[in-house]
Automatic annotation (TrEMBL):
The keyword DNA damage applies. Belongs to the DNA mismatch repair MutL/HexB family. Residues 382-401, 438-462 are annotated as: Disordered. CDD domains: HATPase_MutL-MLH-PMS-like, MutL_Trans. This is DNA mismatch repair protein MutL. GO terms for cellular component: mismatch repair complex. This protein is involved in the repair of mismatches in DNA. It is required for dam-dependent methyl-directed DNA mismatch repair. May act as a 'molecular matchmaker', a protein that promotes the formation of a stable complex between two or more DNA-binding proteins in an ATP-dependent manner without itself being part of a final effector complex. One of its GO terms (biological process) is mismatch repair. SMART domains: DNA_mis_repair (SM01340), MutL_C (SM00853). PROSITE patterns: DNA_MISMATCH_REPAIR_1. GO terms for molecular function: ATP binding; ATP hydrolysis activity; ATP-dependent DNA damage sensor activity; endonuclease activity; mismatched DNA binding. It comes from the Bacteria. The gene is mutL. The keyword Metal-binding does not apply.
Amino acid sequence: MADSPPGRPSVRRLDPVLVDRIAAGEVVERPASAVKELVENAVDAGATSIAVTIAAGGRKLIRVVDDGGGMGPEDLALAVERHATSKLPDGDLDRIDTLGFRGEALPSIGAVARLAITSRMPGTDRGHSIVVDAGQKGPVRPAAGQPGTRIEVTELFAATPARLKFLKSDRAEAAAVGEILRRLAVAHPQIRFSLTGEGASSASLVLPAETGPGSWLRRLVAVLGPEFGQNSAPLSLERESFALDGHVGLPTFHRAAATHVHFVVNGRPVRDRLLLSAVRGAYADVMASDRHPVVALALTCDPALVDVNVHPAKTEVRFRDPGLVRGLIVSAIHEALRREGGRSSATVAARTLESLRPAQAPPVRAPAQAAARPAASLFARRDETAPARVQGSGRPEAFERDFGPAPWEAHEPAQAAYEAPPGGFREADQAEFAGDVARPSADQRNPAAADASPHEAAHQTAHPLGAARAQLHETYIVAQTRDGIVIVDQHAAHERLVYERLKRERAGGGIARQILLIPEVVELDPAEADRLAEAAEALQDLGLVLEPFGHGAVLVREVPAALAGGALRALLTDVVDALHEGGADPLARRLDAVLSRMSCHGSIRAGRRLRPEEMNALLREMEATPFSGQCNHGRPTYVELKLADVERLFGRR
């Protein structure tokens, strides 16, 4: 070969240690990356207990101890060589059924730190150890140790100090290690996991091994919090060669980030965009776009149907049939949430109770002083300096601004025996729900309802939302259940009911339409009018029949029967916005968004007075309608307070 031109370097082979350090840039990005590789090796080794200890967020020390199968001296010497592994016995990259398989993790870690491994196989009388320091491999020596493997990584990135500049604080790095362990723990509930050490106090964890029926849910509760158990629904669905199991949080049980979404594919925790998109699509109708569900899903399939070698950190996968997987996830979540009906999460009531409690504990009064004061109303005006937020109202205002002051004066002179004031709750006491009939009454401030004849329709005691007792501020319905009260946002609730009705009609052959006696011309922005004209055929399937009418205008001939009498211009503006926001989404999803916007115009508005029979009809329809626990925007439609919780507010418990 001719010599290289002056000034141009010749091609040469890199030093093996430098090659390992370059590989470490992909495999070991931060301490959590090293922990992931080491713990996955322990899982593949059949460990039932894995203990992780770190110092300084993992920079100074990472220790992983497991009770797995261990390694003999020959295997130990090969384990720190590049491209050496025990996990591909037949060399088939299309059927990978282990967590780790690239033979670069241990040599890469040894290239940028000091790596010490001590391992002993069960049934042998002694173990062996080896040390790799900044890429320099030492000899295998006999060593004492328990069955299993003990790996210590000290002074991570000491051989490449420039990488240390990119690490975050010790606390942040420890938190990342804890997150890695939690995701692996979700995937393997049968293994005990622990994390301890200097700098890991905030991220420390101890997760005992879970076995037997319900073991996975117990592990999920330990990782996702105790509230997840009572605010989630199980799911299980098989389709062709895929099986999906899991637990999904109720729509009103959500988080501000997607960190509580867990995916497991053939035992491997992943963070895959396809799977996350499927979950977001499944919750699109019932959760606000800026909130994220709490979900744990385990997908099992033939290893040949999924490629796990598409990302250096193995956090993403690629399916042979992504459409099938997406459809499976969306269908399973929809069915699980539909089975739950309109159930709202228990956290809504908990937050409501928290908002009702005063910011500061009231001073303790002597018994004589306390007896001289009357019982306070639940809706009595609170201290203006302690504002409250009530779930379902959507307004960051004080409680009385959401629900109004009491319809009676709460600070009257003391009486020997307190009697319920007229109106509101006057007819119902708890004993009345022991029979088959409950007689709802209306708020006395509502003349239309107060003058109505008593509603005698039977209400079975099994009704979860009880019987209407009052309407507050012509916006909120107060109902009494067997063991508490329910407060319903009438507009949010009816918006969901109209939306579900429109979806049923569309799926059942077409949305019922009403012909306008006189077609109405609606003036719009020219671009908006053009967008509506382009979507006219699709909108006709939604019950909205229109056609272009000159520049910047459309002629509306028919509207969905459920929306008759509404303001057409506002309706069309919302439809245009929904079409625009849908962007490149599939047509079906964009049409659902259009229906969601349209349903808002056909629902009972806040400020409308309702008769008792109307309020009860709304409650009954909510009980029979899926997803009625939240409106189309993901906010709760009702708040339920147990009688015991209300009694605690007044010190009765």
